[in-house]
Amino acid sequence: MMASERPFIIVSMAPRWLALWFSLASLSGLGCSDRPEPKTETETAELRARLETLEAKTAALTVERDEIQAKFDACSKCRTMNIQAFDAFGQSSAYPEATNDTITDAIALLDARIATRKPDEKLAIVLDIDETMLSNYPQLDGSDYCFERTAWNEWVDHGTPTAIHGAERLYAWAHDHEVALVFLTGRKEPQRAATERALRAAGFPDWAEVILRDPSENDMKAAEYKAGRRAKLEQQGYTIALTLGDQASDLDGGHSEKTLLMPNPFYQVL
After folding, report:
1. Considering only Cβ atoms within 10 Å of each terminal Cβ, which end of the chain, N or C, has fewer?
2. What does the H/E/C string look like for 173-242?
């Protein structure tokens, strides 16, 4: 290589060497005076613990999200099917006939029981309220047959349920035969005034008791709560000749001579 070419070679190579030098300086700390100090073992452990906690919360929220989505999808599917069925079914055909027939069966059972009544025996009928003695069909239809707590509470407070077809006959029979009427509902104690208003407005002004859940019973399953309340009625000296409700959970648990299920095509309470 000729000497006259060397300055050209040196100058053309200089930027590459400078770039390499600065890269090495950066790696060794010479090119960055404000880099963060390494974390201590304690700080690293704390960060790792926080990360594990957040990962666990994320996993739990993911599971909860998937469960809610599955319930929503199922509800949407069932709601669509229910709307189609109930629009055709309505309030004018098989359902009223079925409830009226059930009341006829209830009176027949009670007529037979009265025939063997002992002197001074305190006979009682325990009755669920919603879809057993009171029809909430306008609320059910307006909510597309899908339960939503706020809308339901609003209906309880201000709605106008009507008597189930045939229920007036059972009410009149009980009064004529001096059999105590006990309404036993899953509604909560703060809804007492609204519940008693609805019963009176529907044609049921008199009763022995109206029993609602008190706060200590809010976490109980329906069957456990209602069976426990029937047991307390027995302790008060009542003989429960018949329990009538629209859910299996209204009837389970004993403390009743006879039980009868009122038809309810709208919902199920566990």
Report:
1. N
2. HHHHCCCEEEEEEEEEHHHHHHHHHHHHHCCCCCCCEEEEECHHHCCCCHHHHHHHHHHHHHHCCEEEEE
